[in-house]
Design goal:
Two copies of one chain form a homodimer.
Chain A: E1 6-10, H1 11-25, E2 29-33, H2 35-39, H3 43-49, E3 55-58, H4 61-69, E4 76-78, H5 87-93, E5 97-100, H6 103-112, E6 124-129, H7 141-152, E7 157-163, H8 179-192, E8 198-200, H9 204-209, E9 217-220, E10 243-255, E11 260-261, E12 267-268, E13 273-278, E14 295-298, E15 301-304, E16 314-317, E17 329-333, H10 339-344, H11 350-355, E18 362-366
Parallel strand pairs in A: 1-18, 2-3, 2-9, 3-4, 4-5, 5-6, 6-7, 7-8
Antiparallel strand pairs in A: 1-10, 10-13, 10-17, 11-12, 13-16, 14-15, 14-17
Helix pairs in contact in A: 1-3, 7-8
Chain lengths: ~375, ~375
């Protein structure tokens, strides 16, 4: 048997969360974002759970091809577009929509001399990216007209919509770059192109928190997996955990007051304690930054991690959990313990924890 | 093509590092530790690089079986032993040595009523673990005699050696638990069993830093992969990077002073700047804790990461790298940029970074 650590993927929860995304999106269509191996949940389970999605979006070209080959017929988009000229044949063959965010990508499109399509539906669908202040990908409003004109000059290209990404959707009135300022810049770009294109602005945070944001396509990511995009609890939005990371106690140590645990002797027992050793470490994807006190469930009882996270183990306080023994069930996050609670105690976000699930963690699909 | 991010595994460097481990180990034999997918380097490349190792050690039962099936004939050890009764058949069939660290494991061995071996060489080799203060796995000296007696009462078991693990090998005079105190406790256990068993004390840190530690088997981990187990540079020990994580710029943004980058608008340009966007994010295994200033190479020139790490991208300062453009080569760590430098800027250790390499990162074996 593999080590006793498993990630159970709850298909019903993923389906439920997609329904929540639809509800919060009003009349907008929803891209289910499945990049990064569906945020660690696995592409295959995600495809089953999001069968009703209006479209699927990701950043991996090879992943997109796999999705088409699995029979997905609805829209499919590469959120960063293509990376190399050699991607274009795949994009055309598999009818994969692409974001276009820089002139270098348009150069590649022009140089490819793509066969003009026989039918309009076979053109490459382009989602033109506006840099409205994130300063990561996209054209600033002042550059958008030239980018657009270069694209529409090619018969093989169809510009579907204008897309942007929020830097601070979880912090609407951010003093450096408030949500309203990004919308203002985006609207300027939209206006420069005649206000006719469809639009896609909102990620999970904007969908859940900035209800005034209007767009035709929402890009739902973290919320589908039951993580919160803000300090609010995921449950407050009705979201359910998509993944439960679980393991077992593989040893128990009895400590006297003054004894220390693990590397660096970071934690020192303040009284006689029973310590459970869990088969889960940072090489499984558990965050090494987790501080003493990070919550964990043993036999369903909430307790705390103590001592530094090792590569293959963590140590937890089971002093007051009388029935804790070798083989006892441990929940690292998921049902009964929000991933965001663990993330907060590790100075990071649930997104990182889910994506970090290592290959050696056995995936179990909960039908 | 996949996204332009690759982890190149330098077989010659791994071989070289093993030779360094041997040199530092004197007459001791060396276990090459290949747990956690060989610290992210892949089991298959590691097996080729460590063909000369005296033994291989890991924690994954399924990995150990794979190693035997690949033809490995020399010693092979599970550092945490077996986890379930069902592992024992595999352990016996594939001649896998096991650590035994708790009475519950001995219970399983007794309950299994293993067939007494036809020849002495077919007994299960047990490495008895002493808890000398790490308080993670193992028997305290006061418990060691009983554990040993239970084991040797079984004809199917051969106790090979006593093993322990240092909590503070990188901090020899740690006030809570100095190296000498752990050695003292270990020696007590060894003496209680008659001073006849072989011993295994040293990990990479103890091997490189605590030259007074004597043992028959060294367990070399991080050093084999070119990471340092302490604040000293890996190069100071003659170690070479085993992995180079590389990617490309996929976009360039021009910022004016006062403009911000990325989520939370954490970084604000203090002057007109050129920013390169790299196809590498925390879902590739890059640490989300990386601070502004974390080193990165663009076209071989050392510069700094700025702005928060995204799931699929980081942003770097290319203001003074005139030839930086879309497609420019980026080194995240490895040759030319020690992984430990990146780890330090992310408040973690190189071990975590290597192990975190995600499945979506393409592995290239450098022969």
């Amino acid at each position: 048997m593999p080590r006793p650590i498993t990630a159970t993927i709850h298909l019903s929860a993923l389906k439920h969360n997609y329904a929540i995304a639809k509800k919060f999106s009003g009349s907008a269509k929803v891209w289910a974002v499945v990049k990064a191996n569906a945020y660690g949940h696995g592409l295959a389970p995600a495809l089953r759970a999001f069968a009703d999605a209006d479209g699927l979006a990701l950043v991996e070209v090879d992943g997109a091809v796999k999705i088409r080959e699995s029979g997905w017929q609805k829209p499919l988009m590469l959120l960063e577009g293509f990376f190399h000229a050699s991607d274009l044949a795949l994009v055309q063959q598999h009818r994969i929509d692409v974001a276009v965010h820089c002139h270098e990508q348009i150069d590649l499109l022009e140089q490819a001399h793509l066969t003009p399509p026989v039918e309009a539906g076979h053109r490459i669908n382009v989602h033109l990216k506006v840099n409205s202040g994130m300063n990561r990908l996209g054209f600033k409003p002042a550059e958008i007209t030239r980018a657009y004109q270069r694209l529409v000059a090619m018969q093989s290209i169809h510009v579907v919509d204008l897309m942007m990404h929020f830097a601070n959707a979880d912090d609407e009135f951010n003093p450096v770059l408030p949500v309203a300022e990004q919308i203002r810049r985006f609207n300027e770009a939209h206006r420069l192109l005649g206000n006719t294109l469809e639009t896609s602005l909102a990620n999970s945070a904007a969908t859940l928190l900035n209800r005034a944001v209007k767009n035709d396509w929402v890009r739902a990511g973290i919320m589908l997996y039951g993580g919160s995009p803000s300090r609010a609890a995921a449950a407050d939005f009705g979201l359910l955990p998509g993944m439960t990371l679980a393991s077992e106690l593989i040893a128990i140590q009895s400590l006297e007051a003054g004894e220390s645990i693990g590397y660096g002797s970071r934690f020192i027992a303040t009284r006689a304690m029973r310590i459970g050793v869990v088969a889960c470490g940072y090489a499984d994807g558990y965050p090494r930054h987790a501080m003493d006190g990070t919550p964990v469930l043993v036999n369903g009882v909430r307790t705390r991690m103590v001592g530094r996270v090792s590569m293959d183990m963590i140590t937890v306080d089971v002093t007051d959990i009388a029935d804790a023994k070798v083989g006892s069930a441990v929940t690292l996050w998921g049902r009964g313990l929000p991933v965001d609670d663990v993330a907060q105690a590790s100075d990071t976000i649930g997104y990182e924890l889910m994506c970090a699930i290592a290959q050696r963690v056995q995936i179990i699909v909960d039908e």
